[in-house]
Write a structure and sequence with these properties.
The chain is of the alpha/beta class and about 525 residues long. The protein has 19 helices and 14 strands. It has an eight-stranded parallel sheet with strand order 12-6-4-3-2-1-14-13. Strands 5-7-11 form a three-stranded mixed sheet, with no helix packed on it. The two termini are about 35 Å apart. The model has no long low-confidence stretch (mean pLDDT about 95).
């Protein structure tokens, strides 16, 4: 017997024992139970953590089994994304959601649009996680509701085989609930603050928390200047704080992504205390920009002296008190950051780069894997990259090395539309198309995400509609550019009343009131036009 049919039988037996519950229909109760498969955020966190662990193991066995996500700034956006994935690809397998701190700052703060500098309310982070899962659970309830309606119709027509097939669909229903990789920025404060926020995020449903090694109160977007990193000991304390939060809440398989911004960060806030030569603090300090000290005359008032590699040196200190790293040490610092994080509790890495270059990423990952063979990345396929220009220049440079004739191209103007149908542009587009698969295979990338794609798609679609609707096209801009496409491309959202829950509400009214139910889905509902 299927779980659905077993639930009906269980409720039937229960109702026999509760004589005053005679108005309750056991099958309706079973349906409502099926439509609410997850009752708490912690249930979701445990379920999705197990999915991520399985996917990580499958990637280790075969790099072609990489995973993907898109950043979503609202529950509706996440819901529509997962509905679309099920419609077009048949399964949500290996597809996640990404929660971007950048988009929370830009779109969800009560202060209004903010830069990605951890100035937004930290409570907005768990609130968005809860919102996303509320919408995904509603997508489950809606789709199952349609299946239940089809089941009733098949039974009414005596279509036994069709009814059995629908019951099988119900029994093997695939949820829209998937893992969320959630951005906690630099932890929003000290280790205790990080722990408290991590708990709220996990309780809301997060199975995976991404944390970065920037200074919390000087945090910058990964693609802006002025980034300041913290010593390893400080960062590891926050990794520990997140792990304790997972363990306390019973999410033993929770995943931590350790992000390093060292590639683009040239500053550190403080110098860690080294206790012996070559220890972790000494390694961190070895990357500092310094000048030799041979006498007190080499020092100005208030300057500091360090003993590094047996010599006295003074670190370069800026007027704001920050210390500079030596130029050209970014990749070395990234490798040390990543090895240290993986050896001290992190599960996955995030290396924030300035361009999407597989060779650059692979060079760092190969060094990391000498110490941690199964090291793997979450990688930001960032909208901050000019993908067209980057890949056209990569092809240009590769062809130059091969001695190919490039007289028809100007490397500095390759973004120009005049090159769009050129051989070079077509080759670049093919490399962009295969970038994720190639990088998963060659550079250890387990998960590919775009941090803020839906920020851009919302702007682009709104611009297209506004251009026509407020221009000569008028209403045709909406009909032709939106509604007609929704109908012909099979978007469920064209029936917006149903998407917003009106049919679910009608079902419940019928359950609760029987024939007295005042339902919205009668013959005069304009949604019947679609």
């Amino acid at each position: 017997m299927s779980a659905y049919l077993q639930d009906i039988e269980n409720f039937r037996q229960l109702l026999k024992e509760r004589q005053t519950w005679n108005a309750i229909n056991p099958e309706y109760a079973a349906r409502m139970k099926a439509q609410n498969g997850f009752r708490t955020g912690l249930e979701i966190a445990r379920y999705t953590a197990s999915i991520m662990r399985k996917d990580m193991a499958e990637y280790d066995a075969d790099p072609a089994a990489y995973t993907q996500s898109l950043g979503c700034w609202h529950g509706f956006i996440g819901q529509q994304k997962m509905i679309s994935i099920k419609k077009h690809h048949g399964s949500t397998d290996k597809r996640y959601l990404y929660l971007s701190g950048w988009m929370i700052a830009a779109l969800r703060s009560e202060f209004g649009p903010l830069p990605d500098q951890s100035m937004h309310e930290k409570t907005a982070v768990p609130a968005l996680i809860e919102e996303l899962y509320t919408f995904l659970r509603q997508a489950d309830a809606r789709e199952l509701g349609h299946l239940f309606k089809s089941l009733d119709d098949a039974r009414a027509l005596g279509e036994t085989a069709q009814a059995a097939a629908i019951e099988n669909q119900i029994e093997n229903f695939e949820t829209h609930v998937v893992p969320i990789i959630a951005d906690i920025d630099a932890g929003f404060g000290n280790e205790e603050a990080t722990y408290l926020l991590a708990k709220k995020m996990i309780e809301a449903g997060a199975c995976c928390i991404q944390i970065e090694n920037q200074v919390s109160d000087a945090k910058q977007c990964g693609h802006q200047d002025g980034k300041v990193t913290v010593p390893h000991e400080d960062f590891l304390a926050k990794i520990n704080a997140v792990r304790y939060a997972f363990l306390e809440l019973g999410v033993e398989e929770g995943v931590i992504v350790a992000r390093t911004d060292s590639l683009g960060a040239g500053l550190t806030q403080k110098l860690p205390v080294s206790r012996e030569a070559g220890d972790l603090s000494a390694q961190y300090n070895s990357f500092l920009e310094t000048t030799p000290v041979t006498s007190l005359d080499d020092l100005a008032e208030g300057e500091q002296v360090l003993k590094l590699n047996g010599e006295l040196v003074k670190p370069t200190r800026l007027p704001n008190g920050l210390y500079k790293f030596r130029a050209g040490t970014g990749e070395q610092r990234v490798v040390l950051d990543c090895i240290t994080s993986l050896q001290n509790g992190a599960d996955l890495l995030w290396i924030e780069t300035e361009k999407p270059h597989i060779g650059q990423i692979a060079g760092m990952v190969n060094e990391i894997r000498k110490a941690v063979p199964d090291a793997k990345l979450v990688y930001n396929n960032s909208p901050s990259f000019n993908w067209t220009l980057n890949f056209r220049q990569q092809v240009f440079d590769a062809w130059a090395e091969q001695g190919k004739d490039l007289s028809g191209y100007d490397r500095n103007s390759l973004m120009s539309a005049e090159y769009d149908v050129s051989e070079l542009a077509l080759e670049a587009d093919q490399r962009i198309r295969s970038f994720q698969a190639d990088a998963a295979r060659e550079a250890g990338i387990f998960h590919h995400l775009i941090t803020l794609p839906t920020y851009h798609t919302a702007a682009l679609s709104t611009d297209n509609l506004a251009k026509g609707y407020f221009g000569e096209e008028g209403m045709l801009a909406y009909v032709q550019g939106v509604q007609r496409r929704e109908i012909r491309e099979g978007l469920a959202c064209v029936k917006h009343q149903d998407m917003a829950g009106s049919n679910l509400g009608d079902d419940h009214k019928e359950y609760f009131c029987g024939e007295q139910a005042l339902k919205a889905s009668g013959k005069d509902n304009t949604m019947n036009q679609f």
